[in-house]
Design goal:
This protein is an alpha/beta fold. The chain is built from 21 helices and 30 strands. α17 packs antiparallel against α19 (622-635) and α18 runs antiparallel to α19. It binds adenosine-5'-diphosphate and zinc ion (2 copies).
Length: 738
């Protein structure tokens, strides 16, 4: 080994330690190829790992004798750009998460396993309109790029990568630069899709004045960073606003990243995008095969695709020609990753847009309190679509007091009448209940025994059809017992309502009418959800019953009555986020009503008709609710008026997580100036999957101070001997305290 060169590679290895590791280059390496952002294979302990090169150091002073050599270099060019690396570094600091884990999360599984970053299908390259008329002096410092551009300009057709390679050595970097500059574009076939061609296949709808105002505001400054909060009631035409802004971004030959909360919504939106645009549109989400995600990621990385639609996991997909980021349903909790690297895709997307100096649009009918607060602080620009598009009118909300009413399987007599009236008009009814299974509790009528999970602090849920008792918090299940385990009595009663039980009730109460149930149990089989949705849209179904799966995005034009069977159970959570979530859920579910020309109604059954949350929402709407809720958060100094970090720990033995968090508390007390330290306390669900869980909440009115404290604390926590006996994690800006 030639130690006189002393080139040292700083590498992010995906292990739970928050530091980079130094390696020596392999034998016979090409210095040109050693660029930050390539993947390498390295020996680590007794294993080999796929890791990412972060920095190349010419460290003369270092003793290299102890360093190991990289086994192999996997990529010929960096997969992550300088800006990607900058973003991931930011995320690592902000979330105090191990660097290797953060970097590897940017890649799809196939690339994490070391699969090639080349595509099998041939790529064809041709000059764009800009590229064919570009002023040569702009490239006078890049002779290779200029030569390659001239080569491509001289061709009538696109050239394949192989054809370029035959007349050009080291062509990849200059080609990439030309693509990034928008002078060259790449496609899957030799004569498709030159950028001279029309981008749109279908002309846009005529925007209404509010839509037009929103489009104009965003279009006026497309070339710089800004955050827009597009607050539009359900059915107000937000998607049309996205489409018209996207068209302008595509016209400038830039890429668009669209992030969505739910996989189920991607096919609908993808279809709508593909009807409108002729450009290459890729989708990226966890239900795609490893191969599909691999291809989509690389097409995006090579600048071939123009639009990428994806869920949270698409956040870090490369954007060599960044133009715009859209994050739809920004309030949705699924944008927060809840295990491992616990990041908020919304918050990182905003940082990403800022680093790339491009606009980002956050859309929602029920914006998060954080985003509304940021509008107040003038950090985001609010654009409002207060009316439904076309001829649709907003639904009317009402509370139905069910105290002292005789309920039939959860349905009050006035509700049954209302449903019958709607069905008689040949209109559809949607019934919402956020609880799967037959009944949430199985109780003994003789002695009061309740069937509980032995591994969790939770009741077992009755699943009648499968004759099972299931825990919804761990994987355990058992046969539905006919006998009380405490007193042997056979008087076991299911208590409370789940969707399975309501489905049965619907057959009894409305025997003439066809109903369908949409929840995680009924849509498990691949394609089942789509079958149900098709049946609904073809009018083969009169009553749609389901869980929160129904709340999101679906467009059921013939639904005119939405029923929330039981809103009360959401009113009593101890988590301060709960009212916000409940209000959003109610408004989103309500938004399924009356989406077309017929007027919609929403009925909420409650035993709390005086409850302020329900009253404000019903009579004054979401904005009024949000205003009150923010005032309450301010008063209590809760986020967004303060910043939180939650340390969680669990172990099989109860005292271990407690001892660990007590040791952490001691560390905090050595340094802490003003952070509020709450705990350690048992987690709201103190036992889950056989693990005892404790938590410690840190809160500070200054974000910076909180992070300074954590910077100091984290390395010390990692070294605690108590840390080795528990599983622990840090959650920055936690969105639920469970
Ligand atoms: P959102 O995303 O806000 O829920 P959509 O963009 O899905 O709303 O629009 C709801 C419905 O209104 C769709 O059927 C859409 O085609 C229609 N729509 C949207 N904008 C217009 C418009 N300017 N004129 C007529 N119909 C429109
Ligand atoms: Zn009993
Ligand atoms: Zn359990």
């Amino acid at each position: 080994m030639n130690s006189s060169k002393n080139i040292i590679l700083s590498i992010a290895v995906p292990i739970p330690l928050n530091r980079l590791f130094d390696y020596l280059p392999p034998d016979n390496y090409d210095l040109q190829q050693l660029k930050p952002g390539i993947r390498v294979k390295v020996p680590f302990g007794k294993q080999t790992k796929i890791a990412v090169l972060i920095e190349v150091k010419n460290d003369v002073a270092c003793d290299v004798s102890k360093l190991k050599q990289v086994d192999a270099i996997l990529d010929t060019e960096p997969l992550l750009s300088h800006q990607d690396i900058q973003l991931l570094n930011w995320a690592k600091h902000y979330y105090h998460h191990p660097v290797g884990d953060v970097f590897i999360s940017a890649f799809p599984t196939a690339l994490r396993k070391g699969k090639t970053s080349e595509l099998k299908s041939t790529a064809y390259h041709l000059v764009t309109a800009t590229g064919s008329t570009v002023d040569e002096s702009l490239l006078k410092n890049a002779p290779k790029q200029l030569a390659l551009l001239k080569l491509l300009q001289s061709q009538r057709n696109a050239l394949s990568s192989q054809e370029i390679a035959s007349s050009f050595k080291l062509w990849r970097a200059p080609l990439k630069a030309l693509i990034t500059k928008g002078y060259v574009c790449t496609s899957d076939s030799r004569n498709s899709q030159s950028s001279h061609k029309q981008i749109t296949l279908q002309s846009p709808l005529t925007a209404n004045p509010q839509q037009q105002a929103a489009i104009n505001s965003i279009s006026a400054q497309l070339e710089q960073f800004a955050v827009y909060l597009l607050e539009g009631v359900t059915g107000s035409g937000k998607t049309e606003v996205y489409l018209q802004v996207i068209e302008q971004v595509l016209a400038r030959n830039l890429q668009v990243l669209v992030l969505l909360p739910e996989i189920t919504l991607t096919p609908q939106l993808e279809a709508r995008f593909k009807q409108r645009f002729s450009v290459l549109i890729e989708t990226y989400h966890s239900q795609h095969s490893e191969n599909q995600r691999h291809t989509a990621w690389i097409k995006q990385q090579k600048g071939r695709s123009a639009i990428l639609l994806g869920t949270r996991s698409a956040l870090f997909t490369p954007l060599p020609r960044p133009g715009l980021i859209i994050l739809d349903e920004e309030h949705d909790a699924s944008f927060k990753q809840q295990e491992g690297f616990r990041f908020s895709a919304r918050d990182i997307a905003i940082v990403r847009a800022k680093m790339l100096n491009i606009p980002i649009i956050l859309g929602s009918a029920t914006p998060s309190l954080e985003s509304l607060y940021n509008v107040d602080k003038k950090r985001y620009q609010l654009l409002r679509l207060p009316h439904r598009a076309g001829n649709a009118t907003p639904p009317s909300l009402s509370l139905l007091d069910i105290r002292n009413q005789v309920l039939q399987q959860g349905f009050s007599p006035p509700l049954i009448r209302e449903i019958n009236r709607t069905l008689a008009k040949n209109e559809q009814v949607l019934i919402f209940l956020n609880r799967r299974g037959y009944a949430p509790t199985l109780i003994c009528h003789s002695c009061g025994w309740v069937a509980q999970c032995s591994r969790c602090d939770a009741n077992l849920v009755v699943h009648y059809k499968q004759q099972k008792l299931r825990c919804h918090h761990c994987a355990s299940e058992q046969a539905l017992t006919q006998q009380c385990l405490a007193c042997k009595s056979a008087e076991l009663k299911p208590l409370g309502l789940g969707t399975e039980r309501v489905e049965q009730a619907l057959h009894q109460l409305f025997p003439e009418h066809k109903s369908v149930r949409l929840d995680r149990d009924s849509t498990q089989r691949k394609g089942a959800l789509q079958l149900h949705l098709d049946a609904i849209n073809q009018g083969k179904v009169d009553i749609i019953l389901g869980t929160q799966m129904l709340a999101k995005g679906h467009h059921f034009p013939n639904v005119t009555l939405v029923v929330l069977l039981d809103v009360d159970s959401g009113l009593f959570s101890i988590d301060f986020h709960a009212p916000e979530r409940l209000a959003q859920l109610i408004i989103q579910v309500a938004g399924r009503s009356g989406r077309a020309t017929k007027k919609g109604r929403v009925i909420m059954q409650t035993r709390q008709p005086e409850h302020p949350l329900l009253n404000t929402l019903t009579h004054q709407g979401y904005q009024a609710f949000a205003k009150t809720a923010l005032a309450e958060r301010k008063q209590a100094e809760l986020p967004p008026y303060s910043y939180q970090a939650l340390l969680r720990a669990n172990a099989h033995e109860q005292q271990l997580p407690l001892e660990f968090l007590l040791a952490v508390t001691e560390l905090i007390n050595q340094h802490n100036d003003q952070a509020l330290v709450l705990g350690p306390v048992p987690a709201p669900m103190a036992k889950k999957s056989g693990q005892f869980r404790y938590q410690l909440l840190l809160q500070h009115t200054q974000r910076k101070q909180l992070h300074l404290l954590l910077n100091d604390l984290m390395p010390k926590i990692e070294k605690l001997k108590q840390a080795r006996k528990v599983r622990w994690s840090l959650d920055i800006d936690p969105i639920d305290l469970y």
